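Supplementary Note 3. Input sequence used for the single-chain structure prediction.
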Amino acid sequence: MATIGSAKATLVNKIDTLTASATAKDTIYLAKALKENTTHHSFTYQGAWAATTDYALDDVVTNGGNTYICKAAHTSGASFATGSNWDMMAEAGTTIGTGTAGQVLKTNSAGNGIEWGADEGGKILQVVNRSGNTAIANNNGPSSPFITDAHHSITPVAANSTILVIYSLSLMKGADCQALTYLYRQVAAGTDTQIRSLGYTLDNQGGWESGGSHGTYHDSPTYSLGNAVTYRVYAAVSNSSITLYTNTGGAGGASVTLIEIGA
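The predicted structure, written as discrete structure tokens, is reproduced below.
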């Protein structure tokens, strides 16, 4: 099927080729083409609509963000109106700007539009892990615990993130005492501060005994972007005359996994 835009070219070709011997079919086709030429056939963009301006059939204008096509030649009045002169071709979309830093584009609460809003938290931003099996022995007692091989640092990539700490530490003692473990945090070059007592991990039985301290801790440190946050597992014995061993005697190793969770 010929497009409306091609009707004019077809008409010109017919006029050029018609002779006195034109058939009835030629005459009918010519009449049809002439009729097509009185309807929409091409668009002429005229920019923004203006008052007291002559507009022709198929002129295209913009007004109020929408796009309109002229249905009939006319001289515009003082104000724009659809009806007998104009039909809408395209309706303006919704402009919502660019939002602010950290926002995301999402469906609004009514479910009928889009808007900028705060990014929802709970996303894992990074995971770091360190493991070791360095054997360490100490008998300083609970007043002066020692750092085990279970320690690691993470540098948050977003503000107000929380850190999920997953730790595992093997321990062994050779006499009657209890083993204690603690979780410490240090931000940048600040103070190494205890944030959790992990409690007794070996009981008060005599003789050699192996065990460990394992668990998780969800921390909310105060930090500035670019500063590392370090977590360390400290260990001590309840009797300073007894030696506590870590990562030795086949008891296993130590590991710390740090997970940054977006706010």
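The domain at 4-90 is CATH 2.10.10.20 (Seminal Fluid Protein  PDC-109 (Domain B)). Residues 1-5 have pLDDT under 50 and may be disordered.
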